[in-house]
């Protein structure tokens, strides 16, 4: 055998445990896919590919660790790493696309709802609209907060945080101002208040849109174990698959 291989610095149990954890995680459906049915078939294919290549990698590593001097086991580990990383990349790209589509759905739903509040004519209509509108606002806050954690620019993060603060605090004011408008239809003050609150909410949504639409290359979503696994794979590849001449 040419050259020599350095001993691993990460316990084998950590690497194999990371692979097991990802495979177990992928046994459950991504919740985001439920909101994007058009991608469900692609997700199923990509998820199955990751599970299959993960099991292939797990088997290759186990074989290598049982006989590190066997060159066929060494090359098998390298092949399985490449296959698993390629499968993970495809899955993460799909997940990022789905996440972006869901976020855009919330943009449209919230902006449309803000417009509808301007023409509410009864308390029953207001109640119906509020019960539909408020969950969209909460979903938008949650999604934008999650994606903001991947932003590199601190100023962009600050913008998202400020916009979410406005959405969280001013949305109930929109509901209140609409109720007052219904109770006192001839009073200009509650109508002006409703207009002011509506504009602040629209500005907040558009600010979030501008931040995310201004990113030319998305940083992707974060799975709970993806970083841990990719780090382990990278270290494993460097340690075990590079021949030291």
UniProtKB/TrEMBL annotation:
GO MF terms, alphabetically ordered: actin filament binding; beta-catenin binding; cadherin binding
Matching SUPFAM superfamilies: alpha-catenin/vinculin-like
Keyword Phosphoprotein included in the entry's annotation: no
Keyword Transport: no
Gene3D superfamilies for the chain: Alpha-catenin/vinculin-like, HR1 repeat
One Gene Ontology term from the biological process aspect of the record: cell migration
Subcellular location as annotated: Cell junction; Cytoplasm
Major subcellular site: other
Protein name from the UniProt record: Conserved oligomeric Golgi complex subunit 1
InterPro entries found in the cross-reference section: Alpha-catenin/vinculin-like_sf, Alpha_catenin, Vinculin/catenin
GO cellular component: adherens junction; catenin complex; cytoplasm
Alphabetical UniProt keywords: Cell adhesion, Cell junction, Cytoplasm
Family as reported in the entry's similarity comment: Belongs to the vinculin/alpha-catenin family.
Organism listed in the record: Schistosoma curassoni
One matching Pfam family: Vinculin
